[in-house]
Amino acid sequence: MWYGTAGCIVALTLRLLAVPLLATAQPRGTIPRIAYLTLAPGPWAGHSEGFVQGLRELGYVEGQNLLMEYRWSAGDVERLREHAAELVRLGVHVIVTGGPLATRAAKDMTRTIPIVMARDSDPVGDGFVASLGRPGGNITGVTTLARDLNGKRLELLKDTVPGLARVAVLWNPTEVSGARQLRDTEDAARVLGLQVHALEARGPDDFAGAFAAALKGGAGGLTVLEDPVTRFHRARLVDLAAQSRLPTMYWGRVFAEAGGLMSYTASDHDMDRRAAYYVDRILKGGKPADLPVEQPTKFELVINLKAAKALGITIPPLLLFRADEVIK
C-alpha cells in the first residue's frame, strides 16, 4: 500500500490511465472536448438529447472518453456570439451548432475549429458551405431542407382546410434565410393555386398585429416559416391562432405539442443524432471540407385533434393515416 503524496500521485495517474481513450486522430492521451452551441433556452430544450444518444451509439461516454461544453443563450444573439468566442478560447475540438444563428456565431469566431451543423435550413444560401457535396471549409453537418419543406406544408394545409384559397405567411425578415423561405413559399403557392398574404414578424410584439392583418385580408389559413423567434414564443402563437380561429401549419413538432393544429418537419432528434456521426468522423481525422452535408431522411407530420375540434375542422382520414403522431 502506498502512503503520502507520492502514493496519491501514483494512484491518480493509474485512474487517469484507466479512462478509455479514443482511437482517433487526437494526440495520444487527449480526451476530446466537444461544444454544443444553441440559441435555445437551455441545453436540453429539445435540442441535444438526440446528439447525446448518437454519441453513445458510437461509443462515446461523457466524462470518460469525451468532455462536453454546453452553451445556450435563451434567444440572445449577442450572448450567443460571446459563448462562441469563449468556446474558441477554450480550444474545443469541435463545435456543434443547433441552428443557423449559432452556426453564424461560431463561423465568425473561427475558421479552423471544425463546426458541425445539427440543423441548418439553407447552408449554401447562408454562405456556410460551398455546396452540399463539397462543403470546402471548416463547416459541415445536417440541413433541415426548410426551403423545400415550406411547399409541402402548404400542400398539407390545403388538404386539411376545405376550399382554402388565400393563405397568410408569417415570416421574420431578420432571419438569415427568411427572404429565401418566403420566395419558395410564394412559388409553391402559385403551383397550388393559392394566394399569399405575407406578414412580417420580427418579434412576439408583432404576432397579434399579424393575425389581425391575416383575418382582415381574408386568409383561410396561416403557415409559419422557420425561425427561432417563433419557436421560443410558440405558446403565444398557438394562443393567437386559437383565438383567431385560423388553421395554422407550423414548422416544428413543438408547436403541435403546445396545442397548435399541425406541424411538418424533418426530425430534430434524428438530425441531432446524425450530427454525432460527423463529430466521430472528425475526431478520427476527417476534414469538414470533405464531408458532404447530409439531408434529412426522416420527416414528421404531427396533428393535434384537440386543436382541430376547437376549430371545427375534420382531418381527412388519409392525413390521419399518414401522420407520424396524432395528439388527442
Describe this protein's structure.
It is a single chain. By secondary structure, the protein is an alpha/beta fold. The chain has two domains: 23-144 and 268-298, Rossmann fold; 146-267 and 300-327, Rossmann fold, CATH 3.40.50. 42% of the residues lie in helices and 18% in strands. The chain is built from 13 helices and twelve strands. Strand 3 (94-97), helix 4 (100-109) and strand 4 (115-120) form a beta-alpha-beta unit.
Topology:
Layout: H1 4-18, E1 33-38, H2 49-57, E2 67-72, H3 77-90, E3 94-97, H4 100-109, E4 115-120, E5 139-143, H5 146-160, E6 166-171, H6 178-192, E7 195-200, H7 207-216, E8 221-224, H8 228-232, H9 234-244, E9 248-250, H10 253-257, E10 262-266, H11 268-283, E11 299-304, H12 305-311, H13 317-322, E12 325-327
Parallel strand pairs: 1-2, 1-3, 3-4, 4-5, 6-7, 6-8, 8-9, 9-10, 11-12
Antiparallel strand pairs: 10-11
Helix pairs in contact: 2-11, 3-4, 5-6, 7-9
Order of helices and strands: HEHEHEHEEHEHEHEHHEHEHEHHE
Question: What is the CATH architecture descriptor of the largest domain?
Answer: 3-Layer(aba) Sandwich
**What is the subunit organization of this protein?**
single chain
Shape: elongated
Share of helical residues: 40-55%
Number of helices: 13
The number of strands is: 12
From the alpha-carbon coordinates, what is the Rg to the nearest angstrom? 22 Å
The portion of residues forming beta strands comes to: 15-25%
Stretches with pLDDT under 50, minimum 5 residues: 1-28
Structural class of the helix and strand makeup?
Answer: alpha/beta
Strand adjacency order, main sheet? 7-6-8-9-10-11-12
Considering the protein shown, what is the CATH homologous superfamily of the largest domain?
Answer: Response regulator
Mean of pLDDT: 88
